[in-house]
Amino acid sequence: MSEFEDLKNAISCLNKSVSEFPIGAISIEDFKPIEEKIRTTRESLKRQNAKLLTLKSHLLYVKQVSIVSTLCSISISDATNEEPEGNIKDTVTDLHEATANSHINNAVVKLCLHSYTIQAILEGKESDNDMLRKIYAYMSKLFTLNDNILLLQNEIEDALKVQLQLKIQCRNALFEYKSFLKEQEEICNKKLQEINPELVKNKEKTNKTIRSINLMKKLIVNFIAASNHMLFKKPFLVKMLEEHRELINIETISKISQNNSENEEDKS
Q: What is the signed CA dihedral for 51, 57, 59, 61, rounded to 10 degrees?
């Protein structure tokens, strides 16, 4: 790969970085992708929920100990004279884990009881007709909503498949069209080489110059865009951005030459 191609690839990477630069970024966290931010937030919420559950368990344990201490008639002196068995830190840790497990089991039992109660109401074993009618209405709405969600999910998956197929077809069509244009250009160059070799040489030289100019224009635009704080200090950079944001080609050069010729004729 030539140095020109290396520079061209480097400019493409620079352009991608500038385009994806987060607007209003003030810290390193702002440079993270949205997917990574969501993943980090989800993990943080899991840890916070676990910590909250542990704190609730500890609070429940403290309340239980307070009640037991109030009801029991054990003297403080007898309690302080007893030697603790084992490591106190390990004992407290085991106690916290046991309390947390008890709290989790309690929540699971409550959910099971709720499910059993709903099932009993649906079977007519408990509650009255009014409650049964409400439960049926709620369950019907829930099932309908679930069916709608599944239907929407299937439609989204089908649309994504169609979109993927269209993207593949579009890419293949663009590749074929690009190959066709390249073949036509080679045919034209071959015919032109036979008719006027000097013109072909000048055309290649012109195309090389245009590529170099466009490369410099991309560098100017991306470097200025990456140094946005300089736009306030040096306003002429904004004008440079406007002048170099559009790339040029042979048609553009022909149009500029034509305009210059017309201006010279008007002056004369």
A: -150
CB 218 within 8 A of CB 11: yes
Determine the Cα–Cα distance for residues 11 and 74; give it in Å rounded to an integer: 80
Cα pseudo-dihedral 60, 61, 67, 71, rounded to 10: 150
Greatest alpha-carbon span in the chain: 117
Q: What is the pLDDT of residue 27?
A: 53
Mean pLDDT, residues 157-164: 92
Q: Alpha-carbon distance 56 to 64, whole Å?
A: 12
Residue 221, classified by CB atoms within 10 Å of its CB into exposed (0-12), middle (13-18) or buried (19+), is buried
What's the whole-model pTM score?
0.40
- The tens digit of pLDDT for each residue in 103-139 reads 777 777 888 887 777 777 777 776 677 777 887 888 8
Residues 6+ apart with CB under 8 A from 20: none
Q: Are the beta carbons of 140 and 90 closer than 8 angstroms? A: no
Whether 231 contacts 224, CB under 8 Å: yes
The sign of the torsion formed by the CA atoms of 15, 17, 23, 26 equals: negative
DSSP per residue over 50-118, as a string? HHHHHHHHHHHHHHHHHHHHHH----HHHHHHSPPPS-HHHHHHHHHHHHHHHHHHHHHHHHHHHHHHH
pLDDT confidence bin for 152, thresholds 50/70/90: very high
